[in-house]
Amino acid sequence: MSRPRVLVTREVFQETLDYLARYFDVTPNQADTPMSPVALAQALADKEGALTTLSERVDAALLAQCPKLKAVCNIAVGFNNIDLKACTERGVLATNTPGVLDASTADFTLALILATARRVTESEAWLRAGQWSGWKLKQFLGTDVHHATLGILGMGRIGQAVARRARGFDMTVLYHNTRRLSAEVEKSCHAAYVSMDELLARADILTLHMPYSPATHHIIGAKELARMKSTAILINAARGGVVDDAALVEALKRGTLAAAGLDVFENEPTLNPEFLKLKNVVLTPHIASSTEATRRKMALTAAENLVAALTTGKPPNLLNPTF
Ligand code: 8YV
Fold it and tell me: Is 322 a residue whose pLDDT tops 90?
């Protein structure tokens, strides 16, 4: 009997390919060439499974061209690149990788907070450019992270991990979420639930940790930015599109918001060019989960989902609501 054929859309670790090869005929893409929708449809036309990343859009148009496809397993916790409804309608199982990247992403959020508040990248660029002629009392005055009020919008696993880390900095933690957490979880995070308005008004640092969906599109736009303190800092390591980048650029230029630390962008990898001109932003290329150990776990988790999906039909991280 021939083995199921699967596509791995981008470069992965050799161990991920070795694991998949125990079960499937694997078509890898170790050259890491991003696939156009046409190339992806061609590559998937005879495949039963796919290991995907946020770079590939899996929608009804694609699925219509892939009659054999039974499972799409994303190497990411976010799955806004996958049209879940279209998958469910076509009987395609979809999975993500929750849990394995929470701690690394929370660590990186703290890195962005510290780098932005304490002007780490700005001062380093200045030093590397040969501008440092000596110590000065008022050089690169930053904002204190310790004892600041941290606002967390989106209090799932990653938001909670950020809250726990904030305690080490003696921060006051406020959060807003679609659903209020249990008293027990709030206590373990030392976080107080507030309305969205109160969160925006009180946060010295606002950090975002929600998935991207039509409901969270531009959840931080001009109106929300206007409600924030002019001394506040915005951090986004969640998804491009939850922030209206053009509105953020305006607020940063006008000084109605002090600074931003951004790991994700609308239309990435293309950035709003204005970001590159601003000194009060820290910009990183969507690497919040990128540690050696975590990216290995993400790829392997996705591969385990694919094996389970095509062998038992019950992958551990199934996303389709009605399967
Ligand atoms: C991934 C992420 O690196 O998991 C997510 O949702 O944003 C990142 O950790 C990226 O999405 C890879 O597909």
Answer: no
